[in-house]
Automatic annotation (TrEMBL):
UniProt keyword Plastid present: no
Record-given protein name: TTC37 protein
PROSITE patterns linked to this entry: TPR, TPR_REGION
Spans of repeat TPR: 40-73, 562-595, 596-629
């Protein structure tokens, strides 16, 4: 076949393809290849025809042969690209990207429009594959080309916005280069908008700031973007809210941060981040109840702020609401999710605070939970304070050997740490080794004199050590007073001060004041409440006694606060109000149905009311629960006598006299 015949055969193949006679085209091409096996056009036409005949493997092989012959010719690359685009096979995506890359190279010095079309296709392919870095690099090349062509500002603005859309899902698994490309796209987009200020521009700025807030290391950029947006849109609170939350999460509250909180609350008094910021300011100023109020309110509006949950827990710890603090710590851990960097620091701090709160609850279950919390802290074994907390948890669980082992190790490795000596003190105190406990707590105070708990435990050590140290004003009393001065929310220390003034100093008025203070601080402290009521009654101050009892019973749920119901029931009984006495004593029995004395008092209340049958049942129940209650047996007999059941009454009186011959009321009966 001559050169002329080869050209004629190729023309016939081209015409056949144009007329969709693909098999015919293949015949002509094969004829050419018999003569010229390296004919580029013949291989390209075979690729085209085979593709149309749905023979993709043959088409691919033909195009690749053509490319091998002429790697810088367009036709085969275009054909191979079309073939891959129509393919449903996933494994060709990588090869298609290579084809697009080559086409970009071939179009670069020629057809710019086709270059842009291929560039768009390549970016779309990378995006489908979630190859965000490649998306960013390719799209930036496209923008560069458009710039060189003198594209209008509006067109470039749209291209930067498109780049943001392409990369916005990449923030989850971000590498630094992609992240920087996304932020660069945002910066160009906000700076190239036509209408400033305007609604679209404002929303774009919000998205930019929201994106920046996801990257903890972009602090300077975030602060600049927020300040720039505030300058452009002074009535919009969003940048200020983000900035406030950023300051909260950073954990350092500068003058700038406090100014942000104030400014935000001036603009919107109901703003969650603003209220949270004000709550943290109150915490810094030791206004703990105000801090709790504001942080709780702020978190109802902005719940996904782990640092704020931590600060709330810290404030709750300061006023010894330990169970509330545990719940707040749980919320903080949940809001943190899977943390890293600064968030990991917050998680460690939160778990440590949770463990401290659980130890203050002081039961074995809470101690077990404390140990679990401490085990989740990263690098916990290298932190001596965390180890000391773990030692206390073991002590609360009754695991003395483990607690002692930690204590000994800490005293050797960290002899200057107050917590090392305090742990040793707690162990000695629990074993009633008061002399050794005294030495340990004095060592702890020497190293950390501002810790109220150390002074309280030293005071308790003196209280139980001997009568001499209990009565010595310079021992127990001095330590209790120091603890109360250092921590005015520590209810238990006011209870011990009450004990001192009542039992040692004989100052019932001052003692009553201390008990009332202890109970005001901790409404669940029955011992303080009972002591305050008893002393108020003794001092003739029934108003104070009743106000305490009314406050407790109003808040009490069914089956709780027995002591308050019982005390108020007895008061009503004494003051001739039997119906109210019956109601309160019944409430006390719902809390403790096996209290024989309470049943006896209820019998008296029914009797005073004239309910003889129920009075009889109550006295009998009391004597069933405690057969030694002779008075209840006697009262049952007296009621039987009133009801005219004389034989029963005589038998009951006789039963009493068989036990106690000279029991005068029974003889009289």
């Amino acid at each position: 076949m001559s050169n002329k015949e080869v050209k004629a055969a190729l023309k016939s193949a081209r015409d056949a393809i144009r007329n969709k006679e693909y098999k015919e085209a293949l015949k002509h091409c094969k004829a050419v290849l018999k003569q010229e096996k390296n004919n580029y056009n013949a291989w390209v036409f075979i690729g085209l025809a085979a593709a149309e005949l749905e023979q993709p493997d043959q088409a691919k092989a033909a195009y690749k042969k053509a490319i091998e012959l002429e790697p810088n010719q367009l036709l085969a690359w275009q054909g191979l690209g079309n073939l891959y685009e129509k393919s449903n096979q996933i494994d060709v995506k990588g090869e298609l990207a290579d084809v697009y890359q080559k086409l970009l190279e071939l179009y670069e010095s020629g057809d710019r429009q086709k270059w842009c079309d291929v560039c768009n296709k390549l970016v779309e392919l990378y995006h489908q594959e979630k190859k965000y870095l490649e998306v960013a690099e390719t799209w930036q090349k496209l923008i560069q080309v458009k710039r060189e062509e003198g594209a209008e500002k509006a067109e470039l603005h749209q291209l930067w916005k498109k780049m943001i859309q392409l990369l916005k899902d990449s923030t989850q698994n971000q590498d630094n280069k992609t992240e920087q490309s996304l932020l660069t796209a945002f910066e160009h987009a906000v700076n190239s908008a036509d209408t400033v200020p305007g609604e679209d521009h404002k929303n774009l700025y919000k998205d930019f700031i929201h994106c920046l807030s996801k990257f903890p290391h972009e602090t300077a950029r975030l602060e600049k973007a927020c300040n720039d947006m505030m300058a452009l849109y002074p009535a919009v609170t969003y940048p200020l809210e983000v900035l406030c939350l950023h300051f909260v999460h950073s954990g350092t509250l500068s003058e700038e941060a406090l100014h942000c909180f104030s400014r935000l609350l001036e603009m919107d008094a109901s703003s969650g981040p603003g209220i949270i910021g004000f709550g943290i300011k109150c915490l810094q100023e030791k206004k703990y109840r105000e801090a709790i109020k504001n942080l709780t309110e702020g978190l109802q509006k902005t719940s996904q702020c782990p640092a704020a949950w931590y600060y709330l827990a810290e404030a709750q710890m300061k006023i010894h609401k330990h169970r509330d603090a545990v719940l707040s710590c749980n919320q903080a851990v949940e809001a943190l999710g899977t943390p890293e960097g600064l968030s990991l620091r917050w998680r460690n701090l939160t778990l440590q605070l949770k463990a401290e709160a659980l130890i203050k609850i002081a039961d074995a279950d809470a101690a077990e939970e404390a140990v679990k919390a401490l085990e989740q802290i990263v690098d916990a074994s290298s932190d001596p304070v965390v180890l000391a907390i773990k030692g206390q948890a073991y002590l609360n669980k009754g695991l003395m050997d483990q607690a002692s082992k930690i204590s000994q190790e800490l005293l050797l490795s960290h002899p200057d740490l107050a917590e090392s000596h305090a742990l040793e003190g707690f162990i000695h105190y629990s074993q009633k080794n008061y002399r050794q406990a005294e030495r340990s707590f004095l060592n702890a105070i020497e190293r950390k004199a501002e810790t109220a708990e150390y002074h309280q435990y030293l005071g308790l050590t003196y209280w139980f050590m001997s009568d001499e140290t209990k009565k010595d004003k310079g021992k127990a009393l001095t330590q209790f007073l120091k603890a109360a001065k250092l921590d005015s929310y520590l209810g238990s220390v006011f209870y011990y001060l009450g004990n001192y003034y009542r039992d040692i100093a004989g100052d019932k008025g001052r003692a009553c004041g201390c008990y009332k203070k202890a109970f005001d601080l901790d409404g669940t402290d029955e011992e303080s409440g009972t002591a305050a009521v008893d002393l108020s009654v003794e001092l003739g101050d029934m108003d104070t006694a009743l106000s305490i009892l009314n406050e407790v019973t109003e808040k009490a749920s069914t089956g709780t606060a027995k002591w308050a119901w019982l005390h108020r029931g007895l008061y009503y009984l004494r003051t001739g109000q039997p119906s109210q006495a019956v109601a309160d004593l019944q409430a006390a029995l719902r809390a403790d149905p096996k209290d024989s004395n309470c049943w006896e008092s209820l019998g008296e209340a029914y009797l005073s009311r004239g309910s003889y049958s129920t009075a009889l049942k109550s006295f009998r129940k009391a004597s069933e629960l405690n057969p030694g209650l002779v008075y209840s047996i006697y009262r049952a007999a007296a009621v039987e006598q009133i009801l005219g059941k004389y034989e029963n009454a005589i038998a009951t009186y006789q039963e009493i006299l068989n036990r106690t011959e000279d029991y005068v009321p029974a003889l009289k009966g």
